[in-house]
Amino acid sequence: MPREIAFLFDLDGTLVDSVYQHVLAWKTALDSEGIELSVWRIHRRVGMSGGLFTNMLLRETHREISPELNDRLRDRHAEAYRALVTSVTPLPGARELLAHLTESEIPWAIATSGRMETAKINLDALGVDTSQVPVVTRDQVKYAKPDPDLFMEAARRLGIPIEKCFVVGDAIWDMLAAQRARALGVGLLSGGYGADELERAGAMRVFDDPADLLARIDEIGARR
Fold this sequence. Notes:
224 residues; alpha/beta; Rossmann fold; DNA polymerase, domain 1; two-stranded antiparallel ribbon; 8 strands; 13% strand; globular; hydrolase; PGP-like_dom2; HAD-like_sf; sugar-phosphatase activity; HAD family hydrolase
């Protein structure tokens, strides 16, 4: 019988080494609209929903926000990200971690703030079969991170109470969403946030990357 715990994974920066490609893609999209914004400011917003992401960035530039501008930015981001597809690879240990959970009959799902148009690139790089694994994208919920909707829906699809789930993510937005969902947050350093930031946002444990999490998975009660 499957164990009464589950893992809900973020995608970018958690299972796939793609955070900085997203940063560069957003920079390209913003530049195309004549919006000047430092790369570091873009990085600090990656991981939240695309709409909230662009709204927060544009507030910093005091630029009028319109649905048409949001749509153009999203489309240009997706186009620029697709151009970087050859550099998107699984993070160390990501495939092995997912295989271990599957072999141990521990349910897992993916919940990403990205839309399927860009998430599919990452899922393909990871080798995830979406007919076998629940994958929840921004297209499928009302609100994305830092709201808890993505993780709540992923837990629902697995049939596991959200309180028994580990939310694994690389950004403070994942940890905030986990807290709001009443799940246990597990942080990874592979997206560029520091351990102290992840812990302040609610991470109960912080690991370097998926390989480190797999090597020490007994520390959170999911024994090898």
